[in-house]
Prior knowledge:
The protein contains 5 helices and 8 strands. The chain is α+β, with helices and mostly antiparallel strands. The chain has one domain (about 5-170). The N and C termini lie close together (about 10 Å). Strands 3-4-5-6-2-7 form a 6-stranded antiparallel sheet. It has a two-stranded antiparallel sheet with strand order 1-8. It has helices spanning about 10-20, 25-35, 60-70, 120-125, 130-140, and strands at about 5, 50, 70-75, 85-90, 95-100, 105-115, 145, 170.
Amino acid sequence: MQKVVQLTWSQKMKNKIWHFLYKFFPWVQHNLLKWHIVWHDKTRQKYHLGFLAPGKSLQDLEKHLHEKWGFGNHFIAWDDVGQVLSWRKLVDFDHQYHLRVFKEGEIRGHYEYTPESKPLDHFKEVDEEARFQDFEKFLGEYVVHYKYISHLVRDEQTAPESEITIDEVSTQGK
Length: 174
């Protein structure tokens, strides 16, 4: 069951602006970093959740997160060193869960403002939260809490239908 969220006038305007920006954002992001207009600390963000479980692949996890929970590619997120997956689940226009997986199988995640709603607060990590119990529910059998090293490679074939833009402001009701 899918519940569509009604956007306010302000959110509709931000949505239109971001719909336009999505096309250029990767280039802009790259060049803002290159020209040192903005800085991104490439160290891993807080909120360690665990490691990808033995016998589970990155593709298995992607399928599980996308089909069961509505996670998808978060192409406008900064890249952290060693990151092989950066996906988000929109809660509403203003909030999202953001999950990252790293090449050795470490999983990290947090709850935060969407960059589309509050770009500066998002960038400054204002009101960012761990929400460990929510991530436990999302990850289920795909996460273990002991160190289990994998050797993961970024999935360059991520399906286009997994791109999660703010146009898809809906909740899965799950």
